[in-house]
What we know:
By secondary structure, chain A is mainly alpha-helical. Chain A is built from 5 helices and 4 strands.
Amino acid sequence: MLAALWVMAGLAVVLGAVLGFAAVRFHVEDNPLVEKIDAILPQTQCGQCGFPGCRPYAEAIASGAADINQCPPGGEPGIRKLAELLGKEFKPLNAEHGAPKPKSVALIDEQVCIGCTLCAQACPVDAIVGAAKQMHTVIVSECTGCELCVAPCPVDCIHMVPIGEEIGTWKWDPPDYSYGPTA
Amino acid sequence: MRPLFRFNGGIHPPQHKSESAGQGIVPGPLPKRLVLPLHQHIGAPAKAIVKPGDRVLKGQMIGQPQGPISAAVHAPTSGTIHAVGLHALPHPSGLQDLCIELWPDQEDRWIDRQPIEYREKDPTRVLDHLRSAGVVGLGGAVFPSAVKLNPGPPGRVPTLIINGAECEPWITCDDALMRERSGEIVEGILIMRHLLDAQEILIGIEDNKPEAAAAMRRAAAASPFPMEVVVVPTVYPTGGAKQLTQILTGKEAPSSGRSSDIGVACFNVATAYTVHRAVNHGEPVLSRVVTVTGNVRQARNFDALIGTLLPDLVALAQPKDDTDGFIMGGPLMGHRLPALDVPVVKAMNCLIATSPALFKPAPRPMPCIRCGRCAAACPVKLQPQDLHWFAKASNFGKAQEYALFDCIECGCCSYVCPSHIPLVQYFRHAKGEIWAREREKKAADTARERHTFREDRLEREKKERAERLAQKAAAATAQAAGDGAAAQSKEDALRAAIERAKAKKAEIVPRNTENLPPSTLSEIEKIEARRAQLREAAATKSLDQKED
């Protein structure tokens, strides 16, 4: 009887120690839900959602401070994915935050650029190169199309150019989904 | 007799081979204009190394291969470079891409051709030669052959399969090539065998091409290395590399794997021919055999220069008046050309003129009745009916789980579907969407990384600035303290000087006041006292001013 008590007590102490160690050793600093939400967001870092970047928005969604329909670049597919992840109802994009646009990249008119560096400072992904009083240019492959560089330009030399279709990225249209002997 | 194996399903569509077969290979036109796309192969596009106005010779490289997987582009005849710019490609999208426009001088003057002796050369030199000769797989995939012929570890690829099956209806370009140029094909096969160090050579030809098989047998009999011509039953899609491999060896390439994983390398007969021309004659890929057939009066196989604009080529076949379009490739795997003003490219094996009578418009699709005929016909044993549902519901992850990327887009499922559902179109669309999403995901990951880096950088810069400011402020206070002390000592010195001057003045006594009566003396003393008072007042005033 006493032996059984000792065994059980000993087990409790040992397992408690293991659990305590695991809690310290495998402690997760970040909220894993934030990571999952952040993985769905398009990483445009445009701030149209009202937060200073995709990760703050993800944190706000995770904490319940923001709704899932505030990301225009993510569009409807993005909202659907978030709804699925969070077990929420799908809702259409909140028009207050803007409308989805075709994917574009910024283009600097290099003839007009005065080299003020304001756009380079505004770019959330450091995709604009150029020094003070030197012409600036956009690294197209890194540009997320967030439009944050357009407003600061004092000479209005930045334009958003929609990315046209190219053979390399072209994809087949979906077939006509309708059925029936006549159209 | 070699035992043959079978792949799942397959179909027997009407062959339509007789229209163009047996007519011989006719030289294509030497037009006034050639348009040479820089990206005719899988991999990185070639880089233009000529500029408008340059005179080039036949066989001169005008597009240099870039990166590990790429192939060169050459001038198919002598002439002048007219432009380097965008031109529409023979692509289902009808989109434009970078091309070199060459205006032939009609003299057809060759550049100095340099054949190489492949048996004595280091294999990498031969592979480099093939790469700069622009040799790519001419069966349709246009994968750079130099990459595929890279032997890797010895004995990795013991079996070399030469694909002369040509299973798709209407197409007879490989048939014509085998009938007329079998000896040269065998020469090319020997080069390939040498590079791969293969032990076994199998040439697969469908049994609807007995003349080609006979010609290849004759040529193979004369070869120093034994090679076996295997006649296989005519079933579509036997010409698929993996299907032919399965028929000849019974081995199936693993899902999303390659033929080389099971020790097999498969090349088209036309590729073998161009390998021979490149190595033994120093001639790069300048032309290819193109079947022009369908709704035409003279269906023929043309040895057309790469870059020939299709109107120039099609005119020779005399399309009938009711022609309403053209299909590039076969009717099952090919695609309609949105416009005819596009050039012949290395991937173009066939051009079919269509008419409403010859190619009836597809009936409207009806709902899937789950009959399973598509699954029975699928040569890679997929479940097209399931894939179709997933693709339709945009459930692409599930489609990938069901091995969507093993689909070879042969079109058997669409062909047998009693509801006329365009299944292949669903699968092409789904694949495109998946690729697009992968690209987007990659871009998002890069953006996230760059954004995080920027945040870190801004944080670091802020910290550094704050540190610098703190240092500066400390230095300023220290200096201010030093300055205060100096000022104090200056003032003290001034005061001391004034004191000294006062003491000196006090010592000086006027001399003319001696020997005077006491009354005068007392008067003088009074006056002196007043003066002293005034002096005192003046001194304090001046000091006050100084302090202000």
